[in-house]
Write a structure and sequence with these properties.
The protein has about 210 residues and is α+β, with helices and mostly antiparallel strands. The protein contains 3 helices and 8 strands, in the order ααββββββββα.
Length: about 210
Amino acid sequence: MFKYRILALLLFASNLYIGLAQNTVESIRKRYADAKEYARTHTGSNLDDGADFGQFYHMEARQWLPATGGHIENVYMYYDEDYVADSVIYKPHYLVFATKRFNFAAREYFQEFLYDADGKIAFIYAYDPMTELEGDENDKQYEFRFYFSKGHLIKALVKRKNYDEKEFLQAYSGTTIPAKYKSSYYDLLSASESILQLFKDIEKEAY
């Protein structure tokens, strides 16, 4: 069991700590898949000291908002240890992956953030269920994917679908952000920075 735990942690670290290197879309997708798998298998129900024990911070906020009613926001922040500092018993942590799920009324929003080991954002995924960006009368559901290397955008991918459609279709793919998507893009960048700062603030108090 202990050996399995060490192997799982080493796999997680080896694929995610490479964030200090130059990112490519392919390398980001590999790290993202590993982070998703780690988050899926290391949850709040895995509390035993063994291979399935996950290290993360979880914050839940509950509010009653005018017009939209109950608002619940959950943020999970998955971190790893700085393996460079071998002589330090309590090694410093760095944020690897974060998820954010929240609602306004009956609309459910979901966001994911993958970070490089130096704190720069590497990837953002967001599902937006209520956005009108195309100049028509109907709201559409959107998926945003933004890839970064050393904090600079290297690819943007936007998909959308109507509520009566089953699959998302590609609306944009490129290395710049069209004007109609800029508000969503900068809001997500701001969210990634806020979560990183929240992680740092928790670290000061909890570790």
